[in-house]
């Protein structure tokens, strides 16, 4: 087993809730509450959960776009939250983020070639004369054409814009790419093309991904391991095959029951969850899922379930497993 490329230990990210003229802190939103993740080089780890489960905050905290409240994040063995700003800036090209909506991060007045190449120059990774050649390589690797280099963002479709977002990240030759809902805004047919592109780039360039999605069917084809988050906590982690064949946590089972399957007789019975995800400012006692769990018992309301090893590298937080 190699050293992990990324190691997240007991990460917490709480946002203060303030009130009044003096901005007194009256509570905390526990967006991420004791999350641990290890990602090996060349692996794709899928982080799944409903909107509001804290998955994007995990991604942003790993990239140090926001400070952590507690815990440790190690990239290539280095605790990144202890780095001075100048050291962190040197590390940035190695950890890249791909957004759900790449259009919002593209300046409409800047040609796509310049937008893709600007980070190379900012970080001093090549000379001006080398940029164009590297941008053309990145465009080609992402399935775009050479003539796209001089076009403006509004001239592209949603799928092409996501390819531009991937090219922007790829050109920096990163060790880790965090893709935050990268296909959620796309049509299903385009989603498949972009997922195939992620897969192809991983094989050709040995990339490591943290792939964040609310949809298990999206991560199924790309991820080797999957973590399921609910209300800031990890409910279950397992290899993709293990999670899809033997889901243990009731929340995972509910998410899986909504995944479309090509063969009707393999379809799982649909589990419809009651109500909405509770507020992370006031999470339920005991198991955070107990207000929506069809199997909740008295102990679920009183005690927080431990995140336990259920065998075969399969971990789950549920009293009944
Ligand atoms: Fe449901 Fe109880 Fe398990 Fe939580 S601990 S998932 S409430 S059965």
Automatic annotation (TrEMBL):
InterPro entries: AAA+_ATPase (IPR003593), ABC_transp_ATP-bind (IPR050319), ABC_transporter-like_ATP-bd (IPR003439), ABC_transporter-like_CS (IPR017871), Oligopep_ABC_C (IPR013563), P-loop_NTPase (IPR027417). The keyword Transferase does not apply. Residues 6-256 form the ABC transporter domain. Keywords: ATP-binding, Nucleotide-binding, Transport. It holds the Pfam family oligo_HPY. GO terms for molecular function: ATP binding; ATP hydrolysis activity. This is Peptide ABC transporter substrate-binding protein. It comes from Paenibacillus donghaensis. The lineage of its organism: Bacteria, Bacillati, Bacillota, Bacilli, Bacillales.
